[in-house]
Specification:
- Helix content is 33%, strand content 31%.
- With 166 residues, it is of the alpha+beta class.
- The strands form 4 sheets. A 3-stranded antiparallel beta sheet has the order 2-1-10, covered by helices on one side. Strands 3-9-4 form a 3-stranded antiparallel beta sheet, with no helix packed on it. Strands 5-8 form a two-stranded antiparallel sheet.
Length: 166
């Protein structure tokens, strides 16, 4: 048997008695020690920021040489026959960067195995149901003497053996 311990960032703790819920929450990214969100001003508490992240979606592309420069061609008198042609490059493409922030969790979720605690409570409940009552004890003590008290004690020990502590 399991229960869920949910603690918010202020330290407030709450217990939920469904161990499967926490597995679903973790798969959805909830209850983890930290979370990453888009860096949108005002969408988070600045006190919760662990670090700012620049996520490169597309890297920058430097210009690429398409054709080399060609010098001017001159005739014998030094007149330009073919003008100089400059080198041709592609246009540079800037990187596409997504701004994100890593934040402290709003709450943490953990699974706590309470099987032993549940078994102990069940043992106590069963013992109480079968133990001699206080009225039986008082009657045995005041009216029956030591033999009656020992009989009740034997009954108590039999109940303890029947329902041992886990």
């Amino acid at each position: 048997m399991k229960k869920i311990k949910v603690t918010d960032k202020n330290g407030t703790t709450e217990y939920i008695n469904d161990g499967e819920v926490v597995n679903r929450l973790h798969l959805m990214g909830h209850g983890l020690p930290e979370r990453i969100v888009d860096d949108i001003e005002g969408s988070y508490d600045p006190a919760d920021v662990i670090e700012h992240i620049d996520l490169v979606i597309t890297p920058a592309i430097d210009p690429v040489l398409v054709s080399e420069a060609v010098s001017a061609v001159l005739d014998e008198q030094g007149n330009v026959v073919t003008p100089e042609v400059p080198a041709v490059y592609t246009e540079a493409v800037p990187a596409v960067i997504k701004k994100q922030v890593k934040l402290k969790a709003e709450y943490t979720v953990e699974i706590i195995d309470i099987t032993a605690e549940h078994q102990l409570q069940e043992c106590i409940k069963n013992r109480k149901a079968e133990y001699p009552t206080m009225e039986e004890f008082l009657n045995a003590y005041f009216d029956g003497g030591e033999v009656a008290v020992q009989t009740l004690q034997a009954k108590r020990l039999a109940v303890k053996q029947k329902y041992p502590k886990p």
